[in-house]
Every structure is written in C-alpha cells, then in structure tokens.
Amino acid sequence: MVVFMKDASNTRHTAVKPLHQAIRAINRASCGALACYLASMGVAHAAPYVEAGQAGNPASWRSAEFNADWGVGAINADQAYAAGYSGKGIKLGIFDQPVYAAHPEFSSANKVVNLVTSGIREYTDPYIPVKAGDAFRYDGAPSLDSGGKLGNHGTHVGGIAGGDRDGGPMHGVAYNAQIISADNGDPGPEDGIVLGNDGAVYQAGWNALVNSGARVINNSWGIGITDRFDKGGRDPAFPHFTVQDAQLQFDQIRQILGSRPGGAYQGAIDAAHSGVVTIFAAGNDYNLNNPDAMAGLGYFVPEIAPSWLTVAALQQNPNAAAAATTPYTLSTFSSRCGYTASFCVSAPGTRIYSSVLNGTSLADLTIGWANKNGTSMAAPHVAGSMAVLMERFPYMTGAQVADVLKTTATDLGAPGVDALYGWGMINLGKAVNGPSMFVTEADIPAEFRIEGAYGDSQFVADLPGVGAIVDAGKPTQRTCSGPQCGLDVWSNNISGHGGLTKQGIGTLVLTGANSYSGPTLVNQGRLAINGSLASTVTVNNGGILGGNGSVASLTANRGGTVAPGNSIGTLQVAGNLNLAPGSTYAVEFSPTASDRIVVGGIATVSGANMALTPENDNAALLSSNQTSSVLGQQFNVLQAAGGVQGQFGSVTDNYAFLDGNLAYSGTGVTLALERNGDSFASAAQTDNQRSVAQSIEQMSAGNSVYESIILSQDTASARRAFTQLSGEVHPAIATQLINDSRQLRDAVGDRLRVEGLYDQPAPGSEDNSVWVKALGAWGKNSGSSDSASSTSSLGGLLAGVDGLISEHTRLGAMAGYSDTSLSLGDDTHSRASADSYHLGAYIGHEQGALRLTAGASHSWHRIDVKRDLQFGVFSDRQKVKRDAQSSQVFTEAAYRLNLQPLTLEPFANLAYVHFDSDSFTEKAAPRPSKAVTTPATPCSRPWACAPVTASTSTTHKNSTSPPPSAGSTT
Hints:
Layout: E1 13-14, H1 17-24, H2 33-40, H3 64-67, H4 70-74, H5 77-82, E2 91-96, E3 112-114, E4 117-120, E5 135-138, E6 144-145, H6 153-162, E7 178-183, H7 199-212, E8 216-219, H8 243-256, H9 263-273, E9 277-281, H10 297-300, E10 308-316, H11 320-323, E11 328-330, E12 344-348, E13 352-358, E14 366-372, H12 375-392, H13 398-407, H14 428-431, E15 458-462, E16 468-470, E17 478-480, E18 487-490, E19 499-503, E20 507-510, E21 513-514, E22 520-522, E23 525-529, E24 532-533, E25 536-539, E26 543-547, E27 550-551, E28 553-556, E29 561-564, E30 570-573, E31 577-579, E32 584-589, E33 596-599, E34 603-606, E35 609-614, E36 634-640, E37 644-647, E38 650-652, E39 658-664, E40 668-675, H15 687-697, H16 704-710, H17 715-725, H18 729-740, H19 742-752, E41 770-781, E42 790-806, E43 809-824, E44 830-847, E45 850-871, E46 874-895, E47 897-899, E48 902-904, E49 907-917, E50 932-933, H20 942-945, E51 949-956
Parallel strand pairs: 2-7, 2-8, 3-7, 8-9, 9-10, 10-12, 15-19, 18-20, 19-22, 20-23, 21-24, 22-25, 23-26, 25-28, 26-29, 27-30, 28-31, 29-32, 30-33, 31-34, 32-35, 33-36, 34-37, 35-38, 49-51
Antiparallel strand pairs: 1-6, 4-5, 10-11, 13-14, 16-17, 36-40, 39-40, 41-42, 42-43, 43-44, 44-45, 45-46, 46-49, 47-48, 50-51
C-alpha cells in the first residue's frame, strides 16, 4: 500500500467527537505508554534500557532497533550518533494526522507535545461531513479515516523522524528530539484541488507550530495532481505533470495568498520566512511526474527556497546484480524532484518500519509497528536528519543547516543536481562534518536555477561563543550551549562558487582541501586553516587568521591579525601577502622555533605591527631541569619567494626584560630575541623580592627559572614571580612552630600555678599528680610589605605527671601531640602543615610568696609543604615532606603580693628555642641544586617570635627558591 498524504490508499478522515472525548480521558499518569504496551504484551517488568552505542564507534549503534528501519542505516545516522548527535534539544514539528503520544514509541518524558488548534472552517469538504462555518478543534486525539479506521499516518511519520531509542522495535532518526505535533485536520484525497486544504485549519496549525519554537516542520501532504497525469507518471507516451502545470496551480494559490482561504499556503510561506525549515514530500505520482506546487512552493516564492526542502523517495535496488554499485534507486511510486531539484533531496521511503495504531474505536484501539511506503516516509528521514544537524550546528540558521544537508548528499543518477534525485541521498555521516559546498546560482544547472534564491553567495559562519543567545526575540530563541558555539571544526572538502564569512567570537577550523572560489572574509573571531583554500583571504578589523595550512592569497587590513599555527606553526600563502597599516602579525615563539609565513609571491609589509607571544607550552617550563634559552635565538618569521617589500612599523614584545629586533633581507624577515638593559632587581619593590631577583640574575641562560623571568610580560608579573619563588612558606612554617612552642611553656606554667599544689597531702588522700590539657590556637597575620599575610591554627593534647620531691619542690614530666597548619596569602599559593610530638620535663619550687619554674622540652616535627607557582603563563606545583626538630629551655620567676582584696604576681620569664630542619628537595623542582646552609637570622615576623628568643638554622636545597635573603626566617 502506498501511503502519501491524502492520496495513496484513498483514505479519508472522519471526526468522531465521542471518540475524541474518550481518548482524551486516557490517564497516562496511571499507565505510561511503554508500561501499558508491555502490560498488554503480558510483560510484567522490563529491565531499564542500557545504551550500547559508544562514542567514536558507529558499529556499536547498529542494534536490532537501529536496523528495523533500513533507512536509518542507509543515511549513515550511526556516524552522527557516534559523534554525539541525536537531535537532543531540538523541537521537530510534524504537521499531519496527530502523532499518538500514548504510543510506546514515544514513551520518554515530554516526547510528544500535541498542539491545540481551533477556529471556524473555510471550506466545505466533499469527502467528509464538514462545511464552511463549522467550528473545529484539534488536540492530538486520533480521528477515523474514510474506511472507519483510526488514522495513523502522523504516528508512523513521527516514529520515523523521532521515535525513542529505548530497546523497542525501532527508533527514529532524531531519537532525542522533541516532537511537536499539529493536526492538519482533513487531508482528504490528493486530487489537485487548491482549496481542498482548508485555509483556516491549516493556518491555525502553521501558526501553532511556529509559535511552539519548532525549528523544522515535516509535511507529508500536499495538493496532489489530477488523475489524468497518473499514467504519465509511468509512461512517457502520456501527459505528465510538468513545471508548467505546477505554475498553473501556483497561479491559483497566488490569488488567495493573504486571505483566509489561502491559509494553508500563506502559513507555509510565513513559516519559511521566519527561518523554520519547511519540508515537503515530493508526491507519489511516479517517476516522470513533477511535484505539485505545494511541494515546489520554494520555486515560485524564491526568497523561501533556502528554508525549503522537497523530498523524493528511495528504495533498495531490486536488481541484485546492480545493487553492488547502485544500492539505492528512486522508488517506483515516487515523483521526481523535477523543477524543485535545487532544493530537493532523496531519502529512504519504501518499506519503512515505524509506529502505527489500529482499530475503529477506543474499545479496540491497539498499537504496533508496520511497514509503509511513500514520499511521506522519506520526508521524515530528512526532518529527523535536520534535527540532528541542528544539534550539531547550534549556531547555524535553519537555511544553513539545510545547505549542509543538501551539499553533503551522496550523488545519485546524473552527476550533480539532477531531475530525478535532486542533490542526491542525504548522508548524515558526512553532514556532521560541515558543508561541502558554498552554493551560488552558478552551482545549479541552468534548468533548475531560481532567480533571487541564493542571497549574496557568502556562507556566514557566526560562532557567537558558548552561552550566547541565538534567534533573540523569536520563538526559536535559544542559548548556544554546545562547545561548537566557541570552537568548531569542518573537515569536508568544500567546493562551489560561493565564499565564507567568519563572524562571531568563536573559532572555526577548516581541515579539508577546499576549492571554493568565492572570497574568505574573517570579520570576527578566529579562522584556522589546517587544510587548504583556493580562496583569497581578507582579515578585517577584529578577525584572526591562523592554522598550519595554505591559502591562495592573504590580506590583513587595519585591526586584522595573522597568527599562524594552532600553537607554533607555518602558514603558506600561494600568492601574495599584504599586511596593511594597523594590521598585526602575531608571532608565537619558543627557545627552538617560532611561527612563520611562507609566501609564494610578494610579501608587502606596510608598517604593520609584529606582536610576540611565548608558546603556551612554556607553561610547563618550570618542570624542566634545563631548557634552551630564547636569548640570542634568530627566527625566520617571514619568507617570500617574490621578495619582501616594506617593513614592520613596530615590534610589540610586551616583555619587561626582552626585546625583539628585526632584520630584513631581500626575501625574508628574521626576528632576534635579546636581553634588554633592565635588571631583574629593577622590578622588585621589597628586600626579599630584590634578593630573589639578584639570585636569579646570577643564574645562567637556559636555567628554567631564569627563562621564566626573562619572559615576564611586565614588572608586576616579575614581582609576583619573585614573591612565589622565594619559598617564604618554608621559613614561615619554621617560625610558626617556634611560636607554637610557647604552648608547652604555658601548659607547665598553668600546672605549677595551681593553688595548693605544694602542700603535703593529708593522710589517706591521694596526691593529684596527673594532668591533661587540650591545646588550641588560631591566628591571622596581615603581613607586611616584605612578608605575606597568613592564617594559622593549632590543635593538640598534652599530658603530664609530677610529684613533690621535697617540702617545697615539685618535679614532673610531660608528653603530647599537636597539629599545626599554615596558609600564606598575597598570591603566594602556599600552605604547610606539621605533625609534632613533644617530650619534656619541668621543676617548680615555691617558698612563701616566691615561685620559681624551669623546664626543657624536645619536639619532633613532620612537615608537609605544598606550593603552587603561578605567574604569567608559567605554572608548577612543588611539594615536600621533611623532618625537623626543636628544643627549648625556659624559666620563670614570680612573686605574689597579697593586697586585699587583690593578689598580684609580677613575673619575669626567659626561653631559648632552637629549631633544626633536615635538608630537603621539593618534588617537581625544575633544577635541583646543591644543599645550601644559611646562617641563623633573627625572626622576621615579630608577632610570631616576640615571646621567645629564637635561634634557628635550616639546611635546605630548593631549586625553585634562591637562598633566603636577610630578613627572611631560616
């Protein structure tokens, strides 16, 4: 049975109000579509579907569900799925009999939205009992056809376009798209009567679909042609439907455009004008007949042609011998593309398996899947493909996506666009890689050209950046959220007479061998050529041209930038290069290479600027033990076989300690990088920064730390580097541990000040000789001009035991554990922690009002230091775990004064703390150095050292930090 729109099986729809009301009463909340179906099949439970398809592996997507509709595989949809695209987030319109939302093929959440339309009829239909002036209302409930059966055409079409992939019997092309269904109400037979499509019903449907935000609308219906052309479709001896006959139909349409009777056609034109891609089946009138004027409306209204697609049907070649070389041919029932060829494609339409519903009423309604034939089945393959590509290219207009689909089609029949197949068989696997042609009228055979249908011949690639709003103010407004909005790659070979205009802040990469002959304009963002262009390239204000490929010729105007490579690379210019005044040649360099432009013709440099940038890979420079120096390197940055004319007006090096100098020869320009006269110390503002800078200055070129400072883009960046390279956290944690030693002294003092501690215990009582104390402290330091701010904390526990050894003297011992943490601020990115174990002894003597205390302790520290070096483009992480020890002796004298009602106790104390650390080497250090022993210096942080007199020494080896200077804690 050939099913097409109104015609194929001569079916008609009859609206049955009781049935509508009954179906609307179905409680889908209590019985989901898939659950209902499984229950009807006697299946109690179904295991959750697990997707077997894998990214990058098309074969993994070819399940039994995938293969059920041979068309999905024939258009290479598996390659799109493997690339990550399935129509997700796209609203796909179906203008047909309603898509039955309760069918298990559409069981995912919010899969189908049935639009509600209503109004007053314009047409008295001779096939069904309705007349002009009757009210209509459509809400997704199925209706009966002329044979008394429930209409399932829309449900079958919807399954092909977007049925769920969930382990069921089949799935649609865009299985993750949302289906927006509008009921066209009364298709009736395809009899060629222009007024047979009720203007009010169709206009309401068009308006609802456009307002819903649908970006593509499938239409498997039309006007049809009269029976006198039926034989002509198969036998050239009889009259067949030509473009002239279609013109006669359009002449009737034109008379009613803008009026209520013409709503079916005006609505379609308005939808296309709004940017919605409108897809029509070509018709089932056999191979010699052309499409009717509805399917060919883009031909008669040229400005909508870019957003219009007509679809012919394909079959698997029944000739087994020929199938090896020609696997697909035009279905025997399908109309040809004919005069619509320039906007016509072909897709599978014979024996297409999809969802259906059966029955004559709610009482016997059943659901299932079945094969159908028709261009009605071919069109939704195209609609689904458009939805997949709209996800793939979220920044493109609908017309541009249609161009991608057309120009990547597999050519069938006569070479190029032809009368039978149009552009050929759609190929999703190729289409996801971008367009294959920039089309102008010169690319369309003369017999199919449509005057005024091809715009200005420039394909505008507007990559607006991730998060940008697209189609602002329209029903299709959306956020460009895919990564392609900021960076996209087109890998197809692009031909045609058109050109490319790069707009938007994003980056577009072309990797194919592109032969298109129109101009390439880079107006905004970045265009990277990693393949080749036969096109002339012009970079305008705000545009950047990059890549490692080749172009025919290149002009950079004022504000335009040429930046070869993707990192460091070479850009080839076959013809001439022109760098105009105010343009920029951005040169990226490393110690061993730089960007370069190689010109086959003449290079004209008219005072352009050269801007120098270190290679991004230098971010890992600090992890290298040794590296080549950029100093003294000479790079051939421009080479022209036809000679170099003119000079660069300036070199912008943007480096505090580096200058770039240019030398010119007849055919080239050489860049030399040299040290300027500013010392590293000249950028410093504090003593510590100055000391670090002077130490680095003494290192040789090629040392990774030295090279990182050479590449400082300004003095502020250099100062940040000096601060971070100082390794301040190492003396800071030592100082913090020295400061924390007071916790032990304070604990002893608190213990020996307990009232009555020196009294002899009463007979029979126990001496209170055991004590425990919890330790806790938090601190914050605002820093100074020469030290970073910090926060610290300490927690721990001390326990002790003591007893009287004479009438007035008490001797004791203590042990404990503490945990210290320290975090430095002020852009130092450093933190440290220490686990400390303590052991000590103490003695106290009290004679009348006089109290004397003395003690000593020793602590073992396990220190863990982590610090991130982040300055300029450089970064590294250094860490070390090391051991340290500290010892202290302390004493205190106090005298109690009883001044009733007060008691005062003046005191004096003295402590000596010695801190000693093992030598250490930080992990990920760029260049381990010999151990350097630094002399003990006074603590530079009075707030931490005030309670004690500190004498410390640290032996360390730290390749990132030069030896500490005076004023730092060691």
